[in-house]
Amino acid sequence: MDFLRGLLSVTMETSASFLPRESLDTLLEAIRRGGFTRVLGPVARHGAITYTSIASADDLPKGLRDRQAPGQYRLEPEEGERRFAWANGPQALKPLTFAPRETLWRCELDDNGQLSFLDVDLAPTPTAVFGVRACDLAALRIQERHFLKLPYPDPHYAARRESLFLVAVHCSHPADTCFCASTGDGPRAEAGYDLAMSELDHGFVVTAGTERGRGVLSLLNLSPASPDECAQADGEIEAAAAAQTRSLPSRNLKDALYARLEHPHWDQVGRRCLSCGNCTAVCPTCFCHAEQDEPALTGSSSEHLRQWDSCFTAVHSYMGHFLVREETRLRYRQWLTHKLASWHEQYGRSGCVGCGRCIAWCPVGIDITAEVSALLESGDAQS
Amino acid sequence: MHNPDRPVEVEVVDRVEETPSIYTLHLRFTDPEVAASYRLLPGQYNMLYLFGVGEVPISIVSDPDFEGPLEHTIRSVGRVTRGMERLKVGDRMGLRGPYGRGWPLDEAEGRDVVIVTGGLGCAPVVSMIRYVLQRRERFGRLVILQGVKHTDDLIWRRQYERWQQMPDTQVLLAADVGGPNWPYSVGKVTVLFSQAGVDPDKSIVMLCGPEPMMKASIDRLLALNVPAESMWLSIERNMQCGIGHCGHCQVGPYFVCQDGPVFHYPELRPWLGVTGF
Q: Engineered SS bond to B205: which of A29, A146, B114, B195, CB 3.0-4.6 Å?
């Protein structure tokens, strides 16, 4: 992955174009003509930024900013005309690749009692996503490692991933909950996109990350971005990194957390946690899912589905005769130590990309960065 | 891309009632091509599917070289296994697998094989016992130590008595609570170790059963100078996909469904007995 990251950032430096803001629709049109008939973009909806089908650039938010804090998310007006003056909403790319609920196969029972197992049709609508964040691209790469690992790569995930055309927008307005600079996943989108854009007051500095991205750009006859525009774009990204106030103390907390499995702070956070699973639903890397069957009323067929699950539910660790994690503190510890410790052994990096969603969308405002600090502060104290 | 999550059809060709709540299903692939390409190792499991109800992971008891139907011994504990209990000969179900890591067959060759099990007759080690008995000359002594809570929990009592007659095979049984028809030991399985005369340098130990029993047994074996590196254990977790995707079976860094269910004891040492993992 690291070699890929290097490769793509090199291509990025080479040929930046400039897209005037009033030409955004020509870019949307070029992507549509490229076969991506469904275009999703950030839309202010129900009080949050959500990825929704857009018809034109007019659907994008204008002069809106998100204010995020532990247990809080608000959209507020912002000076100016910028369309991407916000950090993120509750969704990442996750629902587009790892569907919240989908059929994996179907079983049919015939009159002789014989069973047939049938694959479902995997033909997701080719979809372009506008305004993808660096943290979410990093999370996408993490989930690719999980779902596409050998020897059982998941065809459902693969088909959805291949159906996406991704237009990243580098972050210039981090929220107070963001800490991607400390995890190394933002605010600059480094890999995994087809096009990446930096928003300036009068338009966008655009670079391509893939051949098909370059193909789309070539349809637009854009002039090159000036050195000043490039410098301003870089400066805004650097400022966005510097503006982040939250952080994790290290990119690898495995040993530190494993040494504190019996720390008294797990009890403390366990008393605040409602075990609601909001954090796992908004987390762009959480991959747990339940498998279940849904028989038709006719009794002659049944669908086998997977649906997002959460390690905060009791049934997640159900064993027939006991629960592995009966208490909330054990579920929180499972989530945090998986995300920040055992993930390193499974996938060679932490499972946290610093998007801050689990902080903002936690109804009681539990802050992963604060919990880690509290755990680490008191040395390797054991209860 | 092949859908790794999709079962194939099997037919129930025999059904054996082991106890009022434990039964064995003998399953035959209805597609001969699937049957011909199916390979398993002792200690692995299949995901069995009951039409319209769901899937459960079940250990395979059969010998890898046996070309007949696959044997699965199942305890009725949940929705799916209670439903499967009602299947009759001729009924169809779904199967996918085999999955996971089995017992360390190469490491075991030439050594004394010590099997430690507890609870209700542990299917994952039965496959290993059968494997050794089929290839008796390739292994040293076979020592089977089985502990149960109540004397009537012991399934396959006749099977244990038969194993006892096999060459160079020692079977020791213990029940927490004895009774009039219990000629064996009374106490935890750990009381059997001194009788067994385990040679710490020549033995490989394979454990399966409740984790507190396995942990107590391992501690006792370590005290008898059996090296940690000579011990392997099979553990259970909630498994829904079997292919390392669904996340339920994690223990520390491991996906039990793929990295296990059989583990080398040094791998699990930091996690065994830690509540919540």
A: B114
> Do A259 and A231 share a domain, yes or no?
no
In this structure, what token pair is assigned to residue A362? 């936690």
Q: Does A316 touch chain B (CB under 8 A)?
A: yes
CA distances from B32 to A168, B10, B37 (A): 50, 11, 9
Cα dihedral A208/A211/A213/A219 (nearest 10): 110
Domain containing A162 equals 2-242
B7 neighbourhood in chain A, CB within 8 Å: 105, 107, 117
For residues A35 and A177, membership in a common domain is answered with yes
- Rounded to two decimals, what is the model's pTM? 0.93
- Residue B105 near residue B131 (C-beta atoms within 8 A): yes
Query: A231 and A331 share a domain?
Result: no
φ and ψ at A167, to 5 degrees?
-110, 105
Using CB atoms and an 8 Å cut-off, which of residues 68-87 of chain B contact chain A? 77-78
Task: Name residue A13's beta-bridge partners.
Answer: none
Q: Are A264 and A228 in a shared domain?
A: no
Task: Measure A159 CA to nearest chain B CA, in Å.
Answer: 9
How many domains does chain A divide into?
2
| Co-location of A260 and A359 in the same domain | yes
pLDDT band per the 50, 70, 90 thresholds, residue B182: confident
B69: phi then psi, degrees, rounded to nearest 5: -65, 155
The predicted-structure confidence for B145-162, as pLDDT tens digits, reads as follows: 998 877 666 666 778 888
Tell me if chain B has a CB within 8 Å of the CB of A320: yes
Q: What is the mean pLDDT of each run of 10 residues along chain A (383 residues)?
A: 40 76 96 95 96 96 96 95 96 96 97 96 94 98 96 96 97 97 97 97 96 94 95 97 96 96 97 98 98 96 98 93 93 98 97 98 98 85 46
Same-domain status, A310 and A233: no
Q: Which residues of B touch A151 (CB under 8 A)?
A: 4
Query: Is B240 in CB contact (< 8 Å) with chain A?
Result: yes
Residue A324 sits at the chain B interface (C-beta within 8 Å): yes
Place of tokens 């076979």: B142
Domains and CATH numbers, chain B: 8-99 (2.40.30.10), 105-228 (3.40.50.80)
- Tens of pLDDT, residues B95-140: 999 999 999 999 999 999 999 998 765 889 999 999 999 999 999 9
